[in-house]
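pasting input
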Amino acid sequence: MNISVIGAGYVGLVTAAGLAELGHDVVCIDRDQVTVSAINNKTPLIHENGLSNILSRLVPKRLIATTDYKVITDTDLILICVGTPSKPDGSINLRYIKNAAIGLGSVLSSKKGYHVVATRSTIIPNTTKEVIIPIIERYAGNKVGFAYNPEFLQEGKAVQAFFNPQRLIIGELNKRAGNVLLKAFKDIPAAIFRTDLTTAEMIKYASNAFLATKISFINEIANICQRAGVDVYDVVKGLSFDYRIGGEFLNAGIGFGGSCLPKDVAALIYASMNHFGYRPELLRTVLDINEMQPSKMIDIAESKLGSLRNKTIAVLGLAFKPNTDDIRNAPAIGIIKLLLAKGAVVRAYDPQALDNAKRVFPQRVDFCSSAAEAIADSDCVLIATEWDEFKNISLYHGKMVIDGRRALEPSKAKSICDYQGVSW
Ligand code: UGA
């Protein structure tokens, strides 16, 4: 098939690369010339395992990028993968979705024949029906089919997840539109669930809200366990035998960051309260617990060191999770801001996210080129991301270590350093 993908960020580019690998001819459309040139030069701006390999083999044979929407006239299916960031009040910002709909609608107006527009961006229930379809039909009439296909890719393993998803959710305006989308993914082994557009949009939000709830749930249990003298990680082992509960996404620590879980829970709360007339108390508490967890590291440091003024604190890990350079909503960033506000001297290291973090803290943080360099001469070490290289306990001999991610095994760590887990 000939497929165009609008938005060459992390979701769009991984989707485009995956579809090209499946044998389709794919064009990425992005308004940013730097992003477009990087793809065409096989040097993507985002870091994702396996992505560069696909680009190096398939650009320009089956995958190219452009800023020009006109290429859409040569394709059968458009996937909208633009960002849906939050506004300051937590509501979803549909600016890029609307721009994409206008851009492709005006080109589709001159295209003859049937065309399917499917969205993969996370959008509040009813957005396809109330925003995307009206804009595109205003330009292109009713020769366009619509679908919604949520992505469940996790950063850091997105390429692998593209080829082995647990499910393909096809929200379709009608079977004809859904069939085109299914044809694009026909070689992907996954359970398939076909439903209407709005249900598919809600499935995406319910998924991320559930994952966020699991994390805040276990952090709440961890806070209770800690006071009861119980290790929450042993409790999770016990829970995991019950298939109704499972053991996944129950790692206690400093909570969830990233560009998805915090934003999506906030957007669902906003839409629920302001559009659907329901106050979601559980989800509000999920966010409250998540905001509280990172500051527990500072509380522990203060309880051990007293005032943090002029104390040297090493922060290991800046990305919101390992194997990514993404620092959006990363707990480490909030922790560093708090440390600086308390007058601490911050030495920070991350294997991949240093460049991004330097843009946030251009002057006041001492960025180091290794974990050992950050740890040397520090009064206290905070582990904020569980990168594999931080699991080497020989790094921490004689140090004070506060572990926000259970990167270290407590009993081993306690034998060589002053170790304290954030809630174990
Ligand atoms: C999340 C979802 O997991 C994906 O299914 C979804 O497709 C994606 O959002 C999206 O909407 O695009 P992602 O943001 O890449 O994926 O990251 P996760 O792996 O979910 O981790 C999110 C945060 O939760 C990280 O900060 C991680 O450290 C934290 N976490 C995760 C925990 O604190 N405990 C856990 O048990 C698991």
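fyi The pocket of uridine-5'-diphosphate-glucuronic acid is lined by residues 122, 151-155, 208, 211, 215, 249-251, 253, 255-258, 260-261, 320-321 (CB under 6 Å).
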